[in-house]
Amino acid sequence: QLYREARECLTLLSQRLGSQKFFFGDSPASLDALVFSRLAPLLKAKLPNGKLQQHLKSLQNLCNYCTSILSLYFPWDRGESHLPPHPLGLGQPVPPDQLAEAEEDPHKRRKQLLSVLVGLAAMLGYAFLSGIVSIQRGSVGPAGRQPIALEEEEEEE
């Protein structure tokens, strides 16, 4: 029944899209992003049961819809080139020689360590300021005879 309802949903989407480029005309809307996010994996992924995928592939306008969005908004993912997107999100692929240079950043470990230390300092600062952790000074006597703050408070009561 689930497959039947999914096939029906795909058919209705196909009918609604018709011959338009996007669901609401010539420019994409949030509905297009939502529909594409569901259709593209279904169309492109290798699935153990391909019934729904075969039905989607039979709806040519939905396949063309996914292909046009992929080529328009993900130009580096055409299957010919396996270059990752530009690290700054500019939509241009990074040439392999520049990618190797970026990965061999000589200060990468130092930056990672600095990030960890800043995060640790922030967490400790929050713990001290919120009262989760506090430091109490006390005199240390012979082994096993250290004063316990809780017992002292009980004695005062």
From TrEMBL:
<feature type="transmembrane region" description="Helical">
    <location>
        <begin position="113"/>
        <end position="135"/>
    </location>
</feature>
<dbReference type="Pfam" id="PF17171">
    <property type="entry name" value="GST_C_6"/>
</dbReference>
<keyword id="KW-1133">Transmembrane helix</keyword>
<dbReference type="GO" id="GO:0001401">
    <property type="term" value="C:SAM complex"/>
</dbReference>
<dbReference type="InterPro" id="IPR050931">
    <property type="entry name" value="Mito_Protein_Transport_Metaxin"/>
</dbReference>
<feature type="region of interest" description="Disordered">
    <location>
        <begin position="84"/>
        <end position="106"/>
    </location>
</feature>
<feature type="domain" description="Metaxin glutathione S-transferase">
    <location>
        <begin position="6"/>
        <end position="69"/>
    </location>
</feature>
<dbReference type="InterPro" id="IPR033468">
    <property type="entry name" value="Metaxin_GST"/>
</dbReference>
<dbReference type="InterPro" id="IPR036282">
    <property type="entry name" value="Glutathione-S-Trfase_C_sf"/>
</dbReference>
<dbReference type="GO" id="GO:0007005">
    <property type="term" value="P:mitochondrion organization"/>
</dbReference>
<protein>
    <submittedName>
        <fullName>MTX1 protein</fullName>
    </submittedName>
</protein>
<keyword id="KW-0472">Membrane</keyword>
<keyword id="KW-0812">Transmembrane</keyword>
